[in-house]
Amino acid sequence: MIWLWLVLQALTLLGVLNYWRHLPVDRQEEAPEGVVMLLSVRDDWDGGAALIARMKAQTARFRLLIATSGECAAAEALAAREGEWAQIVRAGVASDEGQKVHKLRAALRALREGDRYLVFVDADIEPPARLVGRLLFPLVRGKADIVTGYRLLLPEASAMAALVGAVEMQLATLPRAASATMPWGGAMALTREVAERLDLDAALAGRLSDDMAMGLAGWRAKLRLRPVRDLLVASPLAGRGAMAFGVRQYRHILTNSAGMWKVACIVVGVQALGWVWALGWGGWVAVAVGYGAAVGRALVRWRIIAGVVEPGQARAARRSLWWDVLAPFAVCWAHWGMQLAAAGSRRIRWGGFDYWVRDGKVVRMVKVE
What we know:
With 369 residues, the chain is an alpha/beta fold. The protein has one domain (20-259, 343-367): Alpha-Beta Complex (Spore Coat Polysaccharide Biosynthesis Protein SpsA, Chain A), CATH 3.90.550. It contains 13 helices and 10 strands.
């Protein structure tokens, strides 16, 4: 058994090393004409002064298309202030699909004739100046059909937020290949031609998860989905609701692809049960092997993080690394717990609504008061 445990831990370490080894050194960008950025915001959005400042600092030019329900005063003020650079799309309130999906579909219908490249972002990210240019590079060069970054959670100074951040970091630093990549709606891009080929408006209709819907449609169409490994995009995480955030992410997966959820549960479950054996019956050698691999993963992840995000963001993300150093078993158990908890219900609370989802489609939705 100790040899199986040793192999398992070696594989987890090699996976993180593989991610580090494939980080691009020459981070090339493109800045073509006809780029539009689609940003969906809630009614209570505060205008995102920090986000807008970061967007204006992008190395590639674009037009900002803000999708609202029609009741966001801050978005209206921003569009009035920015003139031609930022436009508003007022989608109204959905009745049979996710509100974010509803707003993005309205934005897609509002595209102009010259819009050739579509960039999707979330309102809670802290993007680097190269974000748009890096996402566009594989598209302009014909190397991919859908391009994506991935979130890097910046937990606030609380143990729970740091633990959930550690779980997410396991996913963020997985080896990535086109055959095993799903786009992340917080930072992804595709061409107008691909959107029309997928009939993106129809692919999103009735769905709750925008990125899962796009990713599954891309897989079915045998498109090339490409991750940009150096785009680990910072996203703050509060301690309150952190665990619910993790469960919700896996409930999105489960309600869209039960097979994908099962595979993820098996992979994490093997590691989680391995730690039960190591701590209970494996002895000090097994514990030493587990901790040695955990420290190795943490060191490599720190090199990855320090190389792709700003120093302040790296310091915040480092809070999660301490969990993998001090209690790697807790990270595995929390991860598996989130996956299993996701199977407890088909209800997903997101963006001010409760949704009941079956096969990726919204079957019922109720506004949360």
